Amino acid sequence: MEELRDKDAFDTAQYIVIRLGDEKYGIDIRYVDNILRIQQITRVPKVAAYFKGVINLRGEVVPVMSVRVKMGLEAVEDTKDTRIIILKAEGIEKIGIIVDEVKEVVTLESTQVDRVAYDSKEEKSTFVTAVGKCSDDDLISLLDLHAVLAEQGV
């Protein structure tokens, strides 16, 4: 019986829900190190358009990228809701991603998550691994952070 309860604990995951344009995306909370208000970003010459530069995070230089631009969405001006999410995963240096807004934290059970089929014509779909169904019939696309960060070589 104890073993069964442990298995159930792994059937749920928490996601930070972010907004990019009119769409909601989920980022696995295990990869989130920090959430910051937008701040001065120091440009770095001769880098990809989505790479915005670097910030100083308590003495550590952290690269920052725009997920909007990386996903093929048009760049927009920062607002009071714009945030930089600092991500940290095993084998990956810390990196900041700029999002339009951080909405909430949701807990999804495995039964609320459906894997998506890959569509090579849709650039954004390469960054999404699954779709989560929240309790209020709201859908969030779950981001594949390794795909989002891959081309940068982080």
Describe this structure in words.
- The chain has 154 residues and is mostly beta strands.
- The chain has 3 helices and 11 strands.
- A 6-stranded mixed sheet has the order 8-1-2-11-10-9. A 5-stranded mixed sheet has the order 3-6-7-5-4.
- The model is unreliable at 1-9 (pLDDT under 50).
Quick rundown:
This protein is 12% helix and 47% strand. With 154 residues, it is mainly β. The N terminus is likely disordered.
Core attributes:
single chain; 154 residues; mainly beta; six-stranded mixed beta sheet; 3 helices; 11 strands; 12% helix; globular; disordered N terminus
Radius of gyration: 16 Å
Distance between the termini: 42 Å
Q: List unreliable stretches of 5+ residues.
A: 1-9
Specify the overall morphology.
globular
Instruction: Name the strands of the widest sheet in spatial order.
Output: 8-1-2-11-10-9
The helix content is: 10-25%
Class by SSE composition: mainly beta
Q: Roughly what fraction of the amino acids lie in strands?
A: over 45%
**Number of discrete helical segments:** 3
Major sheet summary line: 6 strands, mixed
- What's the average pLDDT? 84
Number of beta-strand segments: 11
**String of helices and strands:** HEEEEEHEEEEEEH
Task: Detail the topology: elements first, then pairings.
Elements: H1 2-9, E1 12-20, E2 23-28, E3 32-37, E4 51-57, E5 60-66, H2 67-70, E6 83-89, E7 92-99, E8 101-109, E9 113-115, E10 128-133, E11 139-143, H3 145-150
Parallel strand pairs: 2-11, 5-7
Antiparallel strand pairs: 1-2, 1-8, 3-6, 4-5, 6-7, 9-10, 10-11
